[in-house]
Amino acid sequence: MHRILEFYSGIGGMHYAFQLSNNSGEFLAAFDVNTTANSVYKHNLEKEKKKSIRSIESLPISYYDSFNANIWLMSPPCQPYTRMGLHQGSSDPRAKSFLYLIDMLSKMSFPPTYILIENVKGFEESDTRNTLVTQLKNCNYNFQEFFITPLQLGIPNSRLRYYLLVNINIIRIYSDSLLSKINIRPISDFLQDDVDYEKYSIPNKTLTKYGKLFDIVKPSSRRSCCFTKGYHHYVEATGSILQLDEFLDSDQIFNNNQINSSISENTINLILRLKLRYFTEREVASIMGFPKDFSFPEEVTLKQRYRVLGNSLSVRVVAELIKYLLLD
Prior knowledge:
Helix content is 30%, strand content 14%. It is of the alpha/beta class. Strand 2 (25-31), helix 2 and strand 3 form a beta-alpha-beta unit. The protein is elongated, with a radius of gyration of 21 Å.
């Protein structure tokens, strides 16, 4: 049975991915300093009493050695490698804990046999990636790097991410057939039936002012934009919104001359005919691969729910990579 440490555990995406991979293993400890994410993790994985809120770099190497874990799963903070984070890389304080783990590999008595790392596109160009790869080579690890989107698994979401698989034993030749599946499922497969439309509707003022900036999809659509932590709070590049009316053309309505002029009752009526709303947090979780019994504690606000989901990962993609990593 595998012995697993889960770093930057968030709301449990890596945990659910490992379960979905159908491998047997014990999660020895999970580490995250985000209190909201930790409460969601505990709510869903109550039997897991091994959640640590201490910073990773505050614990000695001997502590991690004591677990004798053979698998490390992690999704380190992505902000140092994004445009919004100014691409500061290793000089960003949020990269400190990850650099600590990288440095620790050569000093451990019982280093992991397998490592899986997920991060944003852009990490591959960072100095942190260079430090990581140099250390892996020095420690005689084999590794492979990928860019994968859920679309390759038939999931209607374009969450392109960087993945690194590490194995101390052998390296395998990656085959595109591993993740290139056939039909992409429609968004309707992931929607709830009993949604409170008023709760998730978009204010008229927001639609009339920023409507053209939204990425709008329909239940029959077979794609959606990546849901980020700013979803429901910011408009542009934070995730798609849903148009329940399958027949109207939203581009035509938002490009109508009446939309471009003053906000009138007729303008609002045109937009309301589209029946636009946000995806619910449950729908976002489903698209990201979380199981049907995944839920949130009542005290976690809607904004917090979207934030922790936006900081999580594609469970299905990671599950397939775990299967591949642990092949006999």
